[in-house]
Structure formats: structure tokens, C-alpha cells
Amino acid sequence: MTAPVGYKHPSVGWNGLTVTDLFCGAGGSSSGLVEAGYRVVIAANHWALAIESHQVNHPETDHSQADISQVDPRYFPRTHVLWGSPECTNIR
């Protein structure tokens, strides 16, 4: 038997608010939002590995692998919160 993979979701009730997570990476911000009671509806990142990791950690979330500067914003569903994580690949 293999051990479960991915983020273990807390048993926090939903606070009624939804989130779009842009530049989601592997899902650290989404995990914090879930722990605070938010429901992450969609997560986007341009990097395939980030999306694959986020899908393991947050399988209930819809995902978009895209350069969001090239996507019509109407593609994303309306949510209560727009979370945009800071760019992390060029921090020195």
C-alpha cells in the first residue's frame, strides 16, 4: 500500500468565499487559503510542472496552464478574491 500523496486538507469549514489563484506554483498560497476556509476555484501558472504539482495538492481545483498575459480575463470564473502570488523564479 502506498502512502497518500499531496497536501492533507484541514477540516476547516468553508467561509463562503471563493478564490482565483494566479501564479499558483505548487500550491503554497492555495494551501494557506484553504486553511483559512476559502475555496480555490481555479489556479493558473505558465509552468507545466507547477500545474502538475498543484493538481496533486489541490485536485478539487480547476487548473489553467497559460501565460495569463495572453489569456482573455473573461476565461476565468468570477470569484470573491483574486490572489496573485509574487514571481519567485528570479529572486536573488
Written description of the protein model:
- The protein is an alpha/beta fold and 92 residues long.
- It has two helices and four strands.
- A four-stranded parallel beta sheet has the order 3-2-1-4.
User: How many E-type strands?
Assistant: 4
Measure the end-to-end span. Answer: 41 Å
Which stretches of 5+ consecutive residues score pLDDT under 50? none
Q: Profile the largest sheet.
A: 4 strands, parallel
Q: What proportion strand?
A: 15-25%
Summing up helix and strand content along with how strands pair, one would put the structural category as alpha/beta
Helix and strand run? EHEHEE
Helix content: 10-25%
**What is the approximate shape?**
globular
Radius of gyration: 13 Å
> What is the strand arrangement across the widest sheet?
3-2-1-4
The DSSP helix count reads 2
User: Residue-averaged pLDDT, rounded?
Assistant: 90
List keywords for this structure.
92 residues; alpha/beta; four-stranded parallel beta sheet; 4 strands; 22% strand; globular
Task: Give a short synopsis of this structure.
This protein is an alpha/beta fold. 20% of the residues lie in helices and 22% in strands.
Layout: helices, strands, pairs:
Blueprint: E1 18-22, H1 28-35, E2 39-45, H2 48-57, E3 62-65, E4 81-84
Parallel strand pairs: 1-2, 1-4, 2-3
